Amino acid sequence: MGKKKTLRTSEVSVQDNQADKALQRALDDLKQQVASYRSVFEAGSEGYIIHDGGIIVDVNLQFEELTGYKDSDLVGESFLSLVAEESRALVVERMTTRPGRPFEIVGLRKDNSRVHLEVVGKDHVHQGRNCRLISVRDITERKQAEEALRGSEERYRDYYEQAPDAYLSVDPESGLVIECNRTTAEMLGRSEGEIVGQKIFDFYTPASFERVKAALLELQAQGVLHSIELQLRRKDGGIIDVSLDETAVRDELGRVLRSRSVWRDITQRKQAEAALRESEQMFRLVAQGVAEVLWIVDPHEDYKIIYVSPAYEEVWGRTCESLYEDPLSWLAAIHPEDIDRVSDALDEQTATGRFDEEFRVTRPDGSIRWVVDRGFGVSDESGRLKYIVGVADDITEQKEAEEAAQQAREELETKVEEELLRGNPYGITFRELTVLHLVAEGRADKEIANELGIRPHTASRHVKNIMGKMSATSRTDAGVRAVREELID
């Protein structure tokens, strides 16, 4: 009996020892689990808070770094004290209604600076208590990037809406307008709602339909179109000339999703071009009807003929086509005695833009024409000489008349000299005797002036002197007596 009792005591001792070891192993395991948990808790890339009913019971190192607080500053404090005023209602609402879904708030650091946070919570047992584990991520940079992107989008949207050209996108398959800017609406005299969703063809004039259809096909094939001139019809019926540029927007398979189109209003340019054409047509009509030779040359391209009027053929006796082909061929017709002087003046014209010469032209049939040619420079906006414009006038008849008049004067003066040699009783001078000849022929003062190359009032004064010296009662009396008394032949 004594031996049995001793055995039982030993067995109990062994069992107690085994229990102690098992307990120690459990404690060691628990410590290891706690250490492992703490390691994970501290090593996470995000900030963690454990709170019980909103009261902080633990935080990790990342949360301390994020907020600038130490755990000793935070444990026992309300989680809401770290939340900006505008976010507190959201925190309370999310913690009670949607505790497991992430949401964004504005947090407060120890230095009172603000930080954008993404927060998500879940149930957690901490030291035997049912708590909440809150994961906190700093999203300040992301929010700043989003804000910058929104600002950029707003700026570019503003540029898009306020652009001077009309921007729009079109579905190439259906021809429907996908979007447009404000300028498009203003150009068409419609609201954006009256444009988006409508067929693009509805806004073109019938004359432009086929060209637009062809343009959409070209866009799908080539991917880009430039400066296609078309006409739009406004809501009020007005017509607008536009230049169309298009670029295809494709998907990863190369299929055209939509066009990126630009309409540029060229109505004023087209009107200016039409006015210019009309002006040029009027100029040509006028130029064709005048006897003078009108000409325009480019002095920077070997005197390229920009324009010469048909009168050139009459004066020079050569075709206008020959002058266009050889811009200096007009020089070959200038009389040998005049060519050097004219060539020198032409060289000077290149620098000054001015030309003013009188010369003779020998026509192919050998006849001579006298020409006075005057030109002046036309400069561009920078002041650079661009063209020289001129008029060449045929003065052959004037020259012949001057030569005839000169010959008549010489013959008259010869007669007068002979008559003076015979003497006269009235003391009439050489010039007065010349005038008396013309008075006897019945010439008026103006005719006498033209004949002698003097002014009319000078001729009138000579006539009065003659009548006074001869005591003549009239011009006719002076002329008759001069012939009768053989003062003149």
Total tally of structural domains: 4
* Unreliable parts: none
The main pleated sheet reads as: 5 strands, antiparallel
What spatial order of strands do you see in the largest sheet? 2-1-5-4-3
Helix content: 40-55%
Q: Architecture of the largest domain, CATH level 2?
A: 2-Layer Sandwich
Question: Roughly what is the average pLDDT, rounded to an integer?
Answer: 84
Question: Gyration radius, to the nearest Å?
Answer: 55 Å
Distance between the termini: 203 Å
Classified in CATH, the superfamily of the largest domain is PAS domain
Number of strands: 15
Percent of sequence in beta strands: 15-25%
Which class do the helix and strand fractions yield? Answer: alpha+beta
The outline comes out as rod-shaped
Blueprint (SSEs and pairs):
Layout (H helix, E strand, L loop, with lengths): L1 H42 L3 E6 L2 E5 L1 H7 L3 H4 L10 H13 L5 E6 L5 E13 L2 E10 L1 H23 L3 E5 L6 E4 L1 H7 L20 H14 L1 E10 L5 E12 L5 E10 L1 H23 L3 E6 L5 E5 L2 H6 L3 H6 L13 H14 L2 E8 L5 E12 L5 E10 L1 H27 L7 H11 L4 H8 L3 H15 L4 H10 L5
